[in-house]
């Protein structure tokens, strides 16, 4: 039976109808807000390529975390851009390092807010790559995962509610899980950046996190945007190694991957609406080319509809306020 008996417009004719038949709901419960921490006090340094986003000193990150929590956002994701950078990523392994200080300060000020700590070496290495470099210029997998595990332990000890490795080295989830368990942190979850693509959409983030690679690119460890089966392979490996949540990143250009991962696993699926996705909307809205609020809500709804349970987004506090208004 088709038209004229079938008229799908019948259930679209008022807001009440549309609310009743809506299939996907966006709620503040699903949102995670990234924060960029820099050294100093009372620093709120605007990230030029990300309007409205600032690099924050620890004291200001605490304020920003309070604002996000008050808006109804359940979790923040912490990135540090320390001043000290060397081949060993010493800063990230230092129990008094910038990220650890920020984790402890936010947990003290907002105990209810979950603090996820991004675990990577790129912010703390002088070359800006996500792992250690051999003398021949190769990113060395196995020494990198030992360091990443140390960094994760450091953040767990500082009070992080989850550690989120974003480096894309092989075996890092297993290495982190083993060290956390051996050191009394069996209860700390791992959010694995499982399918993280070598994307052009990370550009603005690299300004915010001061983590652009000094040479080359990240294609020897991050995934080829052309691959989907490989994403499932990565996700299943991370689960075998002990990941508690798995992530797809970026989100918007990879909705098919989000859907396939959602259908393949039983754990929560996280999608990261990355810096470039944020800045594209901001730039077009600033020129009046798209309606900012509508575009933001549409992208987040699309990511949820594709199958993401949770979304990391720079829009999180603003959206949480809209949704609870
Ligand atoms: C670091 C890291 C990156 C992002 C999150 N963690 C950048 C990169 O891999 O170059 C990107 C986040 C964003 O663009 O918002 N490993």
Structure write-up:
With 325 residues, this protein is α/β, with parallel strands linked by helices. The chain has a domain at 25-244: Aldolase class I (TIM Barrel, Alpha-Beta Barrel), CATH 3.20.20. Helix content is 40%, strand content 16%. It has twelve helices and twelve strands. It has helices at residues 15-21, 58-71, 90-93, 98-109, 141-158, 172-182, 203-208, 229-240, 255-264, 275-286, 292-306, 316-324; strands at residues 31-37, 44-46, 54-56, 75-80, 114-119, 132-133, 139-140, 162-165, 191-196, 245-249, 269-273, 310-313. Strands 1, 2, 3, 4, 5, 8, 9, 10, 11 and 12 form a ten-stranded mixed beta sheet that branches. Strands 6-7 form a two-stranded antiparallel ribbon. α2 (58-71) packs across α4 (98-109) and α2 (58-71) packs parallel to α12. The protein is globular, with a radius of gyration of 20 Å. The mean pLDDT is 97. The site of ligand PBG has 13 residues, from α7. Ligand PBG binds at residues 118, 120, 122, 130, 166-167, 202, 205-206, 211, 218, 274-275.
